[in-house]
TrEMBL record:
Signal peptide interval: none
Cofactor annotation comment: Binds 1 zinc ion per subunit.
HAMAP family for this protein: A_A_dipeptidase
Gene name of this polypeptide: ddpX
First-level EC class: hydrolase
Keywords of the record: Cell wall biogenesis/degradation, Dipeptidase, Hydrolase, Metal-binding, Metalloprotease, Protease, Zinc
Name of the protein this chain belongs to: D-alanyl-D-alanine dipeptidase
Taxonomic superkingdom: Bacteria
Amino acid sequence: MLLPLSEADGLILDLRYATADNLTGAPIYRRPVALLLPEARRRLLAARDQAAALGLRLKLFDAFRPIEAQWALWHAVTDKRFVSDPRDGGLHPRGAAVDLTLCDAATGAELPMGTGFDAIDAASAHGSGNVPVADQRNRALLLGLMVGAGFDPYLLEWWHYHLPDARRHPALCASAVPGGPM
């Protein structure tokens, strides 16, 4: 069962795949919906609380991604290290992964991370020396918050975190979305 996330949860939602502001250049979701498995949702809200104690907020770019949307990304990205093969299910289609960043709680401004969300670039990797030191610190802060809440990072993407046991959950299609397909 997938559970919704909203601004009422103290999160900032900027669900990029429901807009043209993503690496495909076109919306791949019909409506902006953020969903996670109950365990992933609980852990994300724990990270939210830790971020709030530091004067920060979490901004979500993506959460559950139906397998149909995973196919759209698979076809749009040439460097397959940056997108899971939909035949293997991926992690987002299981409702066990989030893409996010940190924002200043007072202003809502994103903390600089050295690259944008979904940048298909070696500089997107955790520990990349090709970004300013201050941006590396921001990435390390996000990493600490998310790992402290029980998520694992994907080392090539500073924005991606998932449940350590994500693959034990089935990959889902758009018909699994409460209220109708995304």
